[in-house]
Amino acid sequence: MTTILSIRDNKSVVIGGDGQATLGNNIIKDNVIKIKKIYNNKILSGFSGSTSDSFTLLEILEKKIDFYQGNLLKSALELSKDWRTDKFLRRLETMLIVVNKNISLLITGNGDVMQFDDNIIAIGSGGMYARSSAKALVENTKLPIKDIVNKSLKIASEICIYTNNNFIIEELIY
């Protein structure tokens, strides 16, 4: 399991995640990179779930982004349709957060492509801990969102046994 958190403000969008990989109740690896840049570093993505499933879907998404000339929303909707209806893709188990300078999206295998009104998206076993912390920090501090992502992931790592404190944090500044 893992924790991935993204926050957007009027200057940038940040996405971060921990590095823990588990197999059942055992920690297998503590430095897995679950944040990936795609589409010539113009899109940041994070995933929670199977690594190979996530990379498969991100490759398909990137092809769709090329086809739709950079339109992330249209590409995500088309990926979601395929993911839901294709016999092979339907078995893939992961959740994706994808962000660019214009939009932040959560994409799931249930056919969901969602934007969040508060611009805070979190997935994974520690996702709700990180989201709650981020929401409180966004509303009650003037910290830069990159610092909020870091602090929120740290809080999640102190609460969720499936989240560690080896973070990868990336930012797109507009």
From TrEMBL:
Cellular component GO terms, alphabetical: HslUV protease complex; proteasome core complex
Localization in the cell: Cytoplasm
UniProt keywords, alphabetically: Allosteric enzyme, Cytoplasm, Hydrolase, Metal-binding, Protease, Sodium, Threonine protease
Alphabetized GO MF terms: metal ion binding; threonine-type endopeptidase activity
InterPro entries in alphabetical order: ATP-dep_Prtase_HsIV_su, Ntn_hydrolases_N, Proteasome_sua/b, Proteasome_suB-type
One Pfam family linked to the record: Proteasome
Any GO BP: proteolysis involved in protein catabolic process
The protein's name in its UniProt record: ATP-dependent protease subunit HslV
Naturally occurring in which organism (per UniProt): endosymbiont of Rhynchophorus ferrugineus
Encoding gene, per UniProt annotation: hslV
